[in-house]
Amino acid sequence: MIPRLDAQLIRAGDRATLAALGEAARGVGFATVYNTALTPSRVEDVIEMYRAFFHLPESAKREIDMARTGANRGWGAPGSEQVDLDANPDYKQFFDSGYELSKDDPLAALSVYAPNQWPEVPAGFREMVQAYYDDARDVAMDVLRGIAAAIDMPRDYFDAAFAKPMVLLRGNYYPERPVWATAKDFGIATHTDYGCLTLLATDGSPGLEVRKRGGGWIAVEAPPGEFVINFGEMMEFWTAGDVKATPHRVVGGMHERISVPLFFNPTHDTNVAPPGSDQVISAGDHLAKRFEETYVHLQKQ
Ligand SMILES: O=C(O)CCC(=O)C(=O)O
Ligand SMILES: [Fe+2]
């Protein structure tokens, strides 16, 4: 149901692989990819680095709490994101880092390019996370080129939109599902991602569930080194609904779990409206709007 695809075959333009990718993009909206430039041991190291960060005492994480800022860089406490307004805020914690512009860049004041906040410990956290950020962006760009080809667009159709991309890298930490959790409490409640493509690494634990077109949920698991990919709202706009942004969630269970999504969002000024329409949908406006809806400290009410 969820296809497993070889990233090198996507890159090489292998017909059968692109056909499966196109089918996933138009259908269930999820696939997994393996055999990327990011080796399993590299991904494991990154996951363990995030785990060490999340295991720090709360006081250390509070030092870089994003709730003290007007943006979304640094630590997000439990209950600080509400992705579904019909559910309670998520019980997960997370750490977000993103694209930084030089101070004199005309877009530098926008909150989608806010400066990162790094913890002092664990040692080497910043370096490891930044190196992963750079390499995961290349993997995501390659997959996106494959998708363009798979849906009969020029392979480089999306390239120009990623010059100053609002790419966000997140570490999610799901503790054991709390005893107080009700039917309205989730690790992450049902949502669609906001951008173009999400490249998700997990520690291999189960938890992610993907909504089937006809209703019901499919569990998706991937060990470190195999990535779950899915498509976001901007991609659905941009392809006039050809590519699907599929709802997904994590209810959470008996064991802690780490996942590391890279949200591959384009440059702020990109128009992600359907090609040939006279609509304008600014990627930056859409992202800022979704952030203001879902981060509790940015909600306006
Ligand atoms: O942890 C997961 O498997 C999914 C996380 C997710 O959907 C998200 O962070 O947007
Ligand atoms: Fe998601």
TrEMBL record:
<dbReference type="InterPro" id="IPR044861">
    <property type="entry name" value="IPNS-like_FE2OG_OXY"/>
</dbReference>
<keyword id="KW-0408">Iron</keyword>
<comment type="pathway">
    <text>Alkene biosynthesis; ethylene biosynthesis via 2-oxoglutarate.</text>
</comment>
<keyword id="KW-0560">Oxidoreductase</keyword>
<keyword id="KW-0479">Metal-binding</keyword>
<dbReference type="GO" id="GO:0046872">
    <property type="term" value="F:metal ion binding"/>
</dbReference>
<comment type="similarity">
    <text>Belongs to the iron/ascorbate-dependent oxidoreductase family.</text>
</comment>
<dbReference type="GO" id="GO:0102276">
    <property type="term" value="F:2-oxoglutarate oxygenase/decarboxylase (ethylene-forming) activity"/>
</dbReference>
<dbReference type="GO" id="GO:0009693">
    <property type="term" value="P:ethylene biosynthetic process"/>
</dbReference>
<feature type="domain" description="Fe2OG dioxygenase">
    <location>
        <begin position="164"/>
        <end position="266"/>
    </location>
</feature>
<dbReference type="InterPro" id="IPR027443">
    <property type="entry name" value="IPNS-like_sf"/>
</dbReference>
<dbReference type="Pfam" id="PF14226">
    <property type="entry name" value="DIOX_N"/>
</dbReference>
<dbReference type="InterPro" id="IPR005123">
    <property type="entry name" value="Oxoglu/Fe-dep_dioxygenase_dom"/>
</dbReference>
<keyword id="KW-0266">Ethylene biosynthesis</keyword>
<dbReference type="Pfam" id="PF03171">
    <property type="entry name" value="2OG-FeII_Oxy"/>
</dbReference>
<dbReference type="InterPro" id="IPR050231">
    <property type="entry name" value="Iron_ascorbate_oxido_reductase"/>
</dbReference>
<protein>
    <recommendedName>
        <fullName>2-oxoglutarate-dependent ethylene/succinate-forming enzyme</fullName>
        <ecNumber>1.13.12.19</ecNumber>
        <ecNumber>1.14.20.7</ecNumber>
    </recommendedName>
</protein>
<dbReference type="InterPro" id="IPR026992">
    <property type="entry name" value="DIOX_N"/>
</dbReference>
